[in-house]
Amino acid sequence: MWRYGGGWHFHDDAVAIEEPLELRLHTPDGPMPLGVLMRTPGHDRDLLLGWLVSEGLMPHSLMLAADPENDNVWHLSTPEHERLAAGARLAVSSSACGVCGSGSVERLLVRATPPEPLEVPINPTLLADLPRRLMTVQPTFTTTGGVHGAAVVTLSGDILVAREDVGRHNAVDKVVGWAQGRGLLPLSSHVLVVSSRAGLEIVQKAVTAGIGVVVAVGAATSLAVETAAAFGVTVCGFARDGRFTVYSAPDRVSGHPGT
User: Fold this and answer.
1) Given pLDDT bands bounded at 50, 70 and 90, which one contains residue 259?
2) SS3 143
3) Is 100 a catalytic residue?
4) Which of 10, 227, 231, 258 is buried deepest, with most CB atoms within 10 A?
């Protein structure tokens, strides 16, 4: 490819991979598309489990398997196929929008509960440092500059799991799905840190995973703040250079004047 910087020169450059991932639900009438996600390949099982959690579609029992002939297709079998089919999101979810075609905030209020409170507030110095720690486990971003990162972090600052994807919501689904697959949900004593802004889809996914603290490199959106406030989720934005902004539920941050 060509790069211009006062003059043109040709060079090799790495780009982030983006491909569709289709989840097919098997029913007595045959398979049906449950969802199509535009994602960066890798940790696809985690992505699908996290997506099912976020959409309120996670069945009590399931068989989830990759298609032997197509890396971009997975198959889901469950006795709860009627419920999943009724709530299926058939529209393609782009890599920029985690809630396209899904239910409203009102639906979230019906099916989710506020995260558990923390026994001890979190040190603000630790929260401010989390984006830097996330950057240390983002090799694909270092190579391409084209993916987002998400991590679940313990209250002592240890990264439990980190994932990357072209979609910020996909990166969150991958870490939530990792936790779901290990029986760790709800993640009430953990922090979600993301390399993006804190939009509605990020807060929504935190709520469904039982996470009470979200730390973002970018700003929070109005609907994200409203939703976080409704569920008592602490949202911190602009976390960089030892600073951050608290948008909601400041009681989880040690020393905050609003507590």
Assistant:
1) low
2) helix
3) no
4) 227
